[in-house]
Amino acid sequence: MIGRELREQFPILNQNVNGYPLVYLDSAATSQKPHRVIEAVKKYYEWDNSNVHRGVHTLGSRATDAYEGAREKVARFLHAKSPEEIVFTRGTTTALNLVASSYARAVCKEGDEIVITPMEHHSNLIPWQQAAKATGATLKYIPLQDDGTISLADVEATITDRTKVVSVMYVSNVLGLVNPIKEIGEIAHRHGAVMVVDGAQSSPHMKVDVQDLNCDFYTLSGHKMCGPTGIGALYGKKALLNQMEPIEYGGEMIDFVDLYESTWKDAPWRFEGGTPIIAGAVGLGAAIDFLLEIGMDTIHEHERKLAAYAYDKLSMIDGITIFGPEQDRVGLVTFNLDDIHPHDVATVLDAKGIAIRAGHHCCQPLMRWLEVSATARASFYLYNTEHDIDQLVKALLETKEYFSDAIG
Ligand code: 7TS
Which position has the higher pLDDT, 4 or 378? Predict the structure, then answer.
């Protein structure tokens, strides 16, 4: 059950926007939430709400079980060895900042290297820029080929024995491509570097096995995978997490506190100071149950078909430029239409009830590489259908007509 039949489970999709049935094509920014995730959060607040890891009372144990149960679900979802390898964070941004601030700043020194790519989201770029500045390490970029893909020969040429960290996005939020993360990780490991994977755009859409990828760190954002906002996770190999210092101090992350010295709990709890995002974790757990029931391979295949359909239909529009490779695309298409500003395209589409994103997509260096200031992007998820793409194509043709009339 996917596509059209699933739509009914997402209450928000059942509405008119500006007089038209909503066509939601902005799931790469954030996904919509099924009834069951909304209900899980509601039930938690109506029935189990309490603080975790402290109360001996019944609600306290229920809340703790729900929170730690959600950690187990994330661990299973990513095929981590144990729930202790899962740190709850606010999302991918916080997770990557944690690795850059705690791990990289402790490990890197002058002359060392941090390697990333020019296609990274700002969340996987600025934390490394800042870590490099703070430690004297050099920030290096694996160059992109003409179609935006990465060649392993370039990876080999960029990573050296001075490289301490390699951090690359699994799926690009602009180019719609999947990077060869496992192979990049093998090269990183051969040089003694750790492999960090920005999984913000892969986790919602495909099966991920962190043990098979053999990455050292991996991130996800709950809100992009049918879960609530404000919750995400960092996977880290246990030995690495336990070697890292916390970056936030306070309640619940400690083992022993004295007037002048304190010690920390083991990972992951040492990174979760203060009252955690309990209801968010419960919602993320429900989202994972939902996704796994449908099956990540089914979701991936549905989106792969939609992406291919969208690519074919959109490329027939005169004056369109589609960015990224033609083959092996995941569920998004980034494009520009003639020289109409993408914000104008998105505004005209919104007037027809179609939600797409326009702008730099938090990838300014990539926009410069593409030689554009902004692009439009339609992104798909398990509730989208070919009909949504037909609506998009029809609206884009009308947009073209509207602007040519306005100019003519
Ligand atoms: N990494 C990638 C690859 C992303 O696409 C995003 C968000 C992030 C990191 C940050 O995730 P957050 O949950 O911490 O905010 N990407 C987008 C996007 O493409 N449009 O809006 C947000």
Answer: 378
- β strands within 252-372, DSSP E: 254-257, 262-264, 320-323, 332-337, 354-355, 357-359
Per-residue confidence band for 172, with pLDDT thresholds at 50, 70 and 90 = very high
Neighbouring residues of 65: CB distance < 8 A, sequence distance ≥ 6: none
Distance in Å, CA 121 to ligand 1 centroid: 7
Q: Which atom of ligand 1 is nearest to the CA of 95?
A: 14
Q: Is the C-beta atom of 336 inside 6 A of ligand 1?
A: no
The catalytic residues are 362
CB of 198 within 8 A of CB of 124? yes
Q: Which CATH number fits domain 4-28+296-407: 3.90.1150.10, 3.90.550.10, 1.10.10.60, 3.90.320.10?
A: 3.90.1150.10
Which atom of ligand 1 is the closest one to the Cα of 93? 14
CA atoms of 114 and 128, how far apart (whole Å): 7
pTM of the model: 0.97
pLDDT at 407 over 70: no
Task: Report the CATH number of the 37-293 domain.
Answer: 3.40.640.10
- Extents of the domains making up the chain: 4-28+296-407, 37-293
Nearest residue by C-alpha to atom 15 in ligand 1: 93
How far, in Å, is the centroid of ligand 1 from the Cα of 197?
13
